[in-house]
Amino acid sequence: MPAAPPPAPPDALRAVAVALLNLSGLGLGYLLVRRWLPMAACLAATVVLLLVALPADADGVPGAALVLYLVFLLLAALHGAFVGLRTRLVWPGRRPVALVLGLVLLAVPVGGALWYDSARQEAVERALLDRLDSADQQVTAAGKEGFAAAKSEYQDALAVYRDLVVHHSGSRAAAQVPDRLKTYYTTVGAAYSHNDYCTAVEPLKYLRTVPDSMPKDQLGSLADWPDDRLATSLYECGADALTDGGTDWVTQFGDLLGTFPESDQADKVVPAVDAAEKKAAKAVSGSDPCTAVTRLHTLNTQIIQLSNDASGQSDGLTKVAARADSSGDAGEYECGVKQYKDGDFEQAQETMQQFVTDNPHHSNRDRARKIAIGAEVAQTLPAAGKKLPTTAGGGGISVTVKNDSPDDITVLYTGPVTGSFTLKACGSCKAYSFASSLISGWEPCSDSGKNYPQRTISLPPGTTYFVHKPKNDTTATPGSDTAKLRYGYVYTECAYTTQSLGSSY
After folding, report:
1. Mean pLDDT, all residues of the chain
2. What's the N-to-C CA distance of the chain in angstroms?
């Protein structure tokens, strides 16, 4: 066997050329010095890196893989320089040419890195566009649901839009966000465009919070987009509730006056409330005065509540509230008359008594007191309620009422004339047993030795209904009598107490 060729003399330029060729990642430096196994290792490392890196995606090459590959290239360059220092090149024979070739081939990894970075950037753009598209689809799907159920979806989509413009401001996706926000606003506030004002209130309130999280330069005119729409929705929703007799209008109008006190919609609140009061006051003269009275008293309470929360409109609201209260008090008379005619005597009595209390100077006050008496009598003697009591008084027939009872009693009567009075207790009288009242020939108020408290009244002829009841005992059963009065007779009524399971007069 011939002896191996002696090693070449050391050559630094050749060592640099081999090192540069190995930095290409293709192991070409090992090729020129005939080191096949290291060359294969370089090719294998590059292939593995390409398998890991391609196709390019938004995440790029894993950091550990890239560091290992760069360390491997550096070691290959150092090892190639060591080998090339004393090993002749197969080709090209001239060292400067090999050095130039090494420098030129450095463009391979550099160009590959630049191409990969561009591909990765495009992958990032596509990923961001996909996120934008997913957020858009989320908004579209949320628009098909009610706002309460879809609110979290809207918030998630808004978070994506914000992340794109804040953390990826130069991306193509971020550039499209302003247009997407227009769609976002119209989708969230869609109920307003359908004139569904009550439903629109909460979504529009939510949209007013968007500038708190989204950069204002991305919103432009959208920052104020919900304001007029929300003011309109609050007014229209409140006006509908006010017309329908609901209670939510106080909240809606309160929000309107508190949030947009200088708006055109706020200026409509007092006229709307005023119109509702006038409508209710007019209804007092209609077929259902009691409902109108209840409505007026409710309006009074609600308007006062609203005026307490709306300083700018409080004067106008206070005037309407006072008028509602006055109209409601006056309307109690019509309500009581309706209840009396309908046979609801207990409620009629309560209503007329309330009217007398609420209207000390009203022209119908005296008759209301008479109707209240008649209604109380009719609760014991229903026939007494066939006619509405009048304010008529006097008559030519004397009727004396005596009290054979140990209690103060109230005497109520109605018929052609209606009235009431109180008789003091009979100090020497006692309650009769129920059994004694059944004895034949027994008569109350017949003891000539007793001084019975009494009162004589003058009544016209006709049927008069009497009810006697203890003044301070609301649990006792009233006594009653129906008297058909005619001229030429003297009439006496006697009130007494019997004791058994209860008391009667």
Report:
1. 84
2. 154
